[in-house]
């Protein structure tokens, strides 16, 4: 089967590029640069008796690029929506270091504020927004997967597996926790998507 146009969406710094680079090149970069606009990759995968070629648009998570996203998801047969299981990625183009994160924690900002998605938005909430947008404006038969990335950072985990799994089930998505760093479940998520794409 030829060519599965696919898009990755999710908050800044959740690891979209890292997941693609792990899948396509088998690499992981500790200081991956933030994507500008979008980047294109392709990779083939053997699924059962067929070879599937993914044509992947890795979009930029920064809010200023949001308006470009429909260009990439409109023609897509599949989407991976990525959040960070530590959930403390803030949509204001700010990536917080460990010290800043501790300070942020100590401020005790209510979850309702974090989920408001106006100036600040936790990455899991941002993922839900993407899913809503895809359901409203994407292809109706698009295969969607939810990836809880950075699964290696167990000590900092802030999104419960069950919560994400339930949300995914209720919304008809395939869900898996991934780590671009250790490569856990990375091939698996692409494989599961390929299996769900209707054969032509
Ligand atoms: P934008 O392009 O800005 O939207 O970000 P992105 O979603 O492409 O994130 P990117 O792949 O650039 O990763 C952001 C940071 O998270 C980088 O420093 C990565 O090294 C790190 N990172 C990505 N995936 C993982 C992971 O699975 N585990 C850990 N520990 N770090 C990760
Ligand atoms: Mg990126």
Automatic annotation (TrEMBL):
Swiss-Prot/TrEMBL keywords: Nucleotide-binding
Single GO molecular function: GTP binding
Pfam family, any one: Ras
Domain of life: Eukaryota
Gene3D superfamilies given in the database record: P-loop containing nucleotide triphosphate hydrolases (3.40.50.300)
Nucleotide-binding as UniProt keyword: yes
Nucleotide-binding recorded as keyword: yes
NCBIfam families xref list: small_GTP
Protein name as it appears in the record: Ras-related protein RABF2b-like isoform X1
